[in-house]
Structure formats: C-alpha cells, structure tokens
Amino acid sequence: MSTPTTMPSPPPTARASRRAIALVTALVLVLAACGGEDLGGEPMPEDVAVVLPAAAAAMGDVTSVRFALEPSGAVVYIDTVGSLSLDEIDGRFSAPSSAEAILTVTIDGNLSTKLGAVAIDEIAWLSNPVTGTFEELPASYGIDPSNFFDPQDGWRPLLTALQDPVFVGTEQRDGTRYHIRATAPAEQMTVITAGLVSGQDVELDLWIHPVSGLVTAAEFATDVAGERTAWALSLTEYGKEITIEPPVDG
C-alpha cells in the first residue's frame, strides 16, 4: 500500500483520515454516554416527555468521555478506495473539541492493524497504516472536530428532534437505565455523522441514566447500497480529567 504525495489530489491516507476522523468524532456524538457508576438521587418519571428534554440538557454539558464503538454486519470502509475496513474504535473525547482514538482496521480484507487518530481544535491527524507516522489532515479539507463534538449543536438538536419516541422500559445495562426507542430524522443524522449516514431516517435505541439524564449506550443500524450495518457504542468515565496532545511525530 503506497502513499502518493502528488498534489492537489490528496494521498490515500489523507482521504482515509478525513473519513476516519469524521467517523471517530461524529459517531461519538450519535452514541455518547456517561460513566458506568450509578449516581445517587431520585430517578426521573418514566416518561419520554420528561426524559428526553433532561437528556438533551445533560448531553449539552458533557466535558469528557471514554468511548468504544463496534460495527457489525456489512463492512464499513473508512477510506474512499475500499481498502481499510473498520473493526472497532476505542477513544476519548475532551471538550470543547479534542479527541483521540485507536482504530482497529483490516487492510484489503487480510491484515489487521491499528491506526491512531487525533483531533485538536481544527487540526486532525491519522497514522499511516504502513509507516505508523502521524500525518496531518490537509487544511483544504476544512475538518473542524468541534462541528462533530459540540454538545450544543450536535446532541441537543438530535434529542429534541427525535420522532415517535417510545419508553421501552427500565432495564439493567451497566446499572439501571431507561430504554427509549425513537426515529432520528435523516437531516439530523446527516449533520452529526458528517454525511456517513445520509438520506435515511434511523431507528435509534438509547439507554439513559435515570438520574443524570446522560445517555449511557445507543444502538442503530444503517443501510448502504442494500447492505445493513449495525452500530453499538458505550461510553464510560464521563467527567474524568483528560489531556489530549498533538502526536509527537505529527
């Protein structure tokens, strides 16, 4: 696998980094969560009219989180040439616009490897799958991670725009959680996933902490070219102090 440097056409790793950073950052917004610890206090009424506004407010105040994301079903490629398929993501986010993650990917359907991704303010880096060296995303792409992580512009519009919400029940999922199912409008999904999910409404399952209102897990599925991919993500360690720095060789 080579990495051409001829401009103005971006190198494959730059194209991969654009989708990888978008994937890492955007999908965290779709599925962000709070820590596994149960907080003290009185639970909210089991009513979507109460829970969803509380969740929107709580998610707007998120400061940090550790996230784990795993797709299943149809293969998801993070590059434009269909070489790097995503297996899982493990990362951290720190407000207002910093993130780092390890992406486990499979190259050309054969070789499994790990890539590092870092986004700080308006600069993003992805490690080269061959050399391991971090490469900065070209400024011409205009990627701004704050567009994906911004709790105000990402989570609140999504949670307030959910259609036909249903309170499924109270379940045990890393503690007592409220399970809510709703339809996320295509417009909101396109915005918060940077176009990875485009032109389709998505059925979204959310597990919400009954006291804090923070989302602790979420699941949804997408259809691309007639194939279906399921997404599951959990988040822990909300509010923990996180320091994210530029990569040394970036």
Class inferred from helices and paired strands? alpha+beta
Strand order of the biggest β-sheet: 6-5-4-3-2-1-11-10-9-8-7
Mean pLDDT: 78
Whole-number tally of structural domains: 1
What's the end-to-end separation, in Å? 21 Å
Multimeric state: single chain
Work out the helicity level.
10-25%
Uncertain segments: 1-10, 24-37, 140-149
CATH class: Mainly Beta
The DSSP helix count reads 5
Strand content: 35-45%
CATH architecture: Clam
Concise overview:
By secondary structure, the chain is of the alpha+beta class. The chain is built from 5 helices and 11 strands; from the N terminus they run H-H-E-E-E-E-E-E-H-H-E-E-H-E-E-E.
Describe the SSE topology.
Elements: H1 12-31, H2 48-59, E1 64-73, E2 84-94, E3 98-107, E4 111-120, E5 123-127, E6 134-136, H3 145-149, H4 155-161, E7 163-172, E8 176-184, H5 186-192, E9 202-208, E10 215-224, E11 227-236
Antiparallel strand pairs: 1-2, 1-11, 2-3, 3-4, 4-5, 5-6, 7-8, 8-9, 9-10, 10-11
Helix pairs in contact: 2-4
What do these coordinates show?
This protein is an alpha+beta fold and 250 residues long. The chain has one domain: outer membrane lipoprotein receptor (LolB), chain A. Helix content is 20%, strand content 38%. The protein has helices at residues 12-31, 48-59, 145-149, 155-161, 186-192, and strands at 64-73, 84-94, 98-107, 111-120, 123-127, 134-136, 163-172, 176-184, 202-208, 215-224, 227-236. The protein has an 11-stranded antiparallel sheet with strand order 6-5-4-3-2-1-11-10-9-8-7. The chain starts with 11 loop residues before the first helix and ends in a 14-residue tail after the last strand. Mean pLDDT is 78; it is low at 1-10, 24-37 and 140-149.
